[in-house]
Give the backbone structure.
Amino acid sequence: MASRTSSPLLHPDERDFDLFAVMSALTDPVRLSIVLKLATESAVPCGTFDLPIAKSALSRHLRVLREAGVISQRDEGTRRVNSLRAQELDRRFPGLLTLVLKEGAGRGAPQPVAG
């Protein structure tokens, strides 16, 4: 488990995915950039997203994506790993994720923090 105080990770069943919850989760530029990264990398730990936001904000964005059914999260030791639920989304809403990834790639994603 990532933390002794962390809450259990709840993921909606595929049949419970709501189109409007998924689309709402994908409208935010930060969340869209997370999805774009997860589309190219199969399992990404929370601490490796290079975004110009605080850890607490990243946690909130990941929670919104998870609760909408867009991503899955699992604990591996002290790390929380994120994956895109591409197959489930494609079965529930055929073609939606492909369109989102295509259109999202052309948008300006938030720039990484300069280090």
